């Protein structure tokens, strides 16, 4: 062990002419007390790669030798934790995420590169503790997002999830004894639930411009929107999302070969997601997302009309000598290439504003589809299958915003139930009291007469 690596002496003196540090070439190094001792050695890390250590500032050669021997006796995991910074570990962790969705990988990469590395990346795994993590997250919380506003609690919770996943791997690989981020407390965050556009909320929005982060239209507002966009070339897209609850990526990835108009059914087998502005086409969000969706006769008619318009447009472009691609997708650009999902989002926002309707997001049409189906009498299991949720809890907690008519029906049914129970209870008490009441004594006329 004593012969491994190198031990040397150096100082901080500089050359009088070039001002460069003399380090190991200083003529005074032989003097006692001038300079300090260093060691330089290498050994295998936890992954079999070379881990190099260079330490200094020791008062004697013996002290440097003892520090070197102590470092060499460490395990490969301990050497990795001492030598690897969080930046290096996060990038290694990202390289191991090979079986996740591209959009998930992009979200992890954004968290790592934009937030975690700039604020925590220089800390070694060995020195990473809750105090350093809390300080880094405090710095992130004080920064601003792309809109010039403070980072939201949602962003901080997402960053904690990413860092926790990365450090969990370090724990499993033996580099950390425990995950230090498990002690991190953040401002509470509650996922916003969809609010219904009631007349009172609409009046407030028109007066102040404020509106809920997530909102859904009632049936009259949805009907007004569909009536206003009947001539839009993507009318069938809005119809499918609003009435059959397709995700944006599922609708944009739909091909004519996935639809059976004669039997009234379409099959969700792909999803067109975006990473930045780059489109990635793959399988649906979950296994439950790969599903069959029944089509009513009105939806079939809408899709047939959409197909007819598509053929007329393609024929017109061909006659005009303009390029026209037969991509096979249901929703396409004017030249036939598949529609970009972000264009659908922006175009929908323009249509809503043009129709002077309360603002909602494109994804909120999916919320509304679930709520309207639930109000129309569909049970949660049916709504779950319609939307392609892996868990019915997601359907119940997020997508079944109860609309006012359903609220009134529920309130009236509850009142009837309680009042009926109260009437039965009063009747039971009355009957019980009647049975337990003592019998009346017979009226004694003779005794009454004597008293008189």
UniProtKB/TrEMBL annotation:
One of its GO terms (molecular function) is DNA binding. Residues 212-412 form the Tyr recombinase domain. The keyword DNA-binding applies. Residues 84-171 form the Core-binding (CB) domain. Keywords: DNA recombination, DNA-binding. GO terms for biological process: DNA integration; DNA recombination. Residues 427-452 are annotated as: Disordered. CDD domains: INT_ICEBs1_C_like. InterPro entries: CB, DNA_brk_join_enz, Integrase-like_cat_sf, Integrase_catalytic, Integrase_recombinase_N, Tyrosine_recombinase_XerCD. This is Site-specific recombinase XerD. It comes from Micromonospora olivasterospora.
